[in-house]
Every structure is written in structure tokens, then in C-alpha cells.
Design brief:
- By secondary structure, this protein is α/β, with parallel strands linked by helices.
- It has 2 domains: about 10-130, Rossmann fold; about 140-235, Winged helix-like DNA-binding domain superfamily/Winged helix DNA-binding domain (Arc Repressor Mutant, subunit A).
- Helices cover about 40% and strands about 20% of the residues.
- It contains 8 helices and 11 strands.
- A 5-stranded parallel beta sheet has the order 2-1-3-4-5, with helices on both faces. Strands 6-7-8-9 form a 4-stranded antiparallel beta sheet, covered by helices on one side. It has a two-stranded antiparallel sheet with strand order 10-11.
- Strand 4 (about 85-90), helix 4 (about 95-105) and strand 5 form a beta-alpha-beta unit.
- The longest helix is centred in the middle third of the chain and has 14 residues, at about 115-130.
- Mean pLDDT is about 85; it is low at about 5-10.
Length: about 240
């Protein structure tokens, strides 16, 4: 069963897919797991449905009528109300540069067709956990970075930061272990989970996005890249 959002409501998944058989299959399996499912068949409808239903997560097909999934993702990331909305891109495109492109646009995860339903459900649950559907555990601080885990808010020097769910979980893990160097594989296990296959290069994309979000003009970069080793939260020269 899915983790419940605060108040015990069923998480809402918006499935944006124009292939009716796949849409039917996704609805069946998601509802069987206790999720509430909303649907959109093209990019324009997807933007309207997000505004109407305020989903907890979007399963977004890349190739759509009206607007592509990439453009839908780009527009959602530009809007303050949906900047942090968890998005999983679903596509038949299998080239690695396509997955990196989707992540750069703002997707939190990327699944290629055909996919195993169990694997997709695991990714959905993991992303919902990272997005704050489960109550968290207090307050973390590192230098002028402060994370309020209960309110799911992050600030630096009193300035509110806007992080996507994956960047939030990545920063949370690093703040729990300041100064320690983690390899890409260790970060994948800690943030994405051992049961989910993600390319190590994905870590680099999310670290880049995290750096952009937390390092303002003139501020010290608090994430250290350790050549051939990984990343650490300590802002010391590598």
C-alpha cells in the first residue's frame, strides 16, 4: 500500500498518456495499490488537470499530442505552485542523453518503455517518500543551511530555498553525514533505494541541480566534488 499523505488521504497520481491500453493498465495497477488516479491524454489537458486536481505525483509520457512531455515538465517547473511537484517521465526513448535531458528539464525520474510494473511502483513510492508524503524527523543544520524536516522547508542564511523532492532527499542525506565522502553508488542506494536501477550519471545531474538551488551569488559552494570518489557536504577544497 502507498504511504499516505498527511491526514490519511490517498495519494493522487496524474497519469498523462495518450495510449489507451497503457493508460488502462496503469490505472488498474495504481488503483490496486491504493492510489487515486486522474488522467490526461495530451499536454494541454495535463496542465489543466494539474491545476484542477493538485496531484501528489505526475506520470508524464514524453511523446504527447498538443505539447510534448518535456514542454509540460518545463512549464510545471516554471510555476511556483508546481515547482516541486514530483514528476516521473515515461518514454520509449532509450538513449542515455535522453534521460539526462529529461532530468535537466526538471523530471525527478525517468522510466523507459516497456517497463516492469513492480519497478515503476517502487519508483513512485520512493519519490512520494522523498517529496514529504511521510512525516519527517526534526531539524538539520550545516553552516548557514537549515532544514526543517517536519515542515519540509530548507533555507540558507534565512533565504528560503526551493528544492525538488530528489534534491531535498539528497541534501537531507548529506546534511545527516557532513564531511563524509559518498560515492555515486552509495548516494544512489541512500536516496533512490537499492531496489531501483538508476544510472550513476543521474547523481551528477541532481547534484548540479542541488548546487544551483542552494548556492546563491557570492555564496560558498558547500558541496565538494572529490575526484574519482564522489561528493561530500563540507565546502573544503578537493
Amino acid at each position: 500500500m502507498p504511504d499516505m499523505v498527511p491526514g490519511g488521504a490517498r495519494p493522487v497520481i496524474l497519469v498523462v498518456e495518450d495510449e489507451v491500453p497503457l493508460l488502462t493498465l496503469l490505472r488498474y495497477n495504481l488503483e490496486k495499490q491504493g492510489f487515486r488516479v486522474e488522467e490526461a491524454a495530451d499536454g494541454q489537458e495535463a496542465l489543466l488537470r494539474v491545476a484542477e486536481t493538485k496531484p501528489d505525483l505526475v506520470l508524464l509520457d514524453w511523446m504527447l499530442p498538443q505539447l510534448s512531455g518535456l514542454e509540460v515538465c518545463r512549464q510545471l517547473r516554471r510555476r511556483p505552485a508546481t515547482r516541486d511537484l514530483p514528476i516521473i517521465m515515461v518514454t520509449a526513448r532509450v538513449e542515455q542523453q535522453d534521460s539526462v535531458r529529461a532530468l535537466d528539464i526538471g523530471a525527478d525520474d525517468y522510466v523507459t518503455k516497456p517497463f516492469a510494473m513492480d519497478g515503476l511502483l517502487a519508483r513512485i513510492r520512493a519519490l512520494l517518500r522523498r517529496s514529504g508524503s511521510v512525516a519527517s524527523r526534526g531539524r538539520l543544520a550545516f553552516r548557514d543551511l537549515v532544514m526543517d524536516q517536519d515542515a519540509h522547508r530548507v533555507s540558507r542564511g534565512g533565504r528560503a530555498l526551493h528544492l525538488g523532492p530528489t534534491e531535498y532527499r539528497l541534501l537531507e542525506f548529506l546534511m545527516q553525514h557532513p564531511g563524509r565522502v559518498f560515492s555515486r553508488e552509495q548516494l544512489l542506494d541512500a536516496v533512490w533505494g537499492r531496489d531501483i536501477h538508476v544510472e550513476p550519471r543521474t547523481v551528477d545531474v541532481h547534484v548540479r541541480r542541488l548546487r544551483k538551488a542552494i548556492n546563491g551569488p557570492g555564496e560558498e559552494d558547500v558541496i565538494r566534488t572529490v575526484r574519482s570518489a564522489g561528493y561530500a557536504l563540507d565546502a573544503e577544497p578537493g
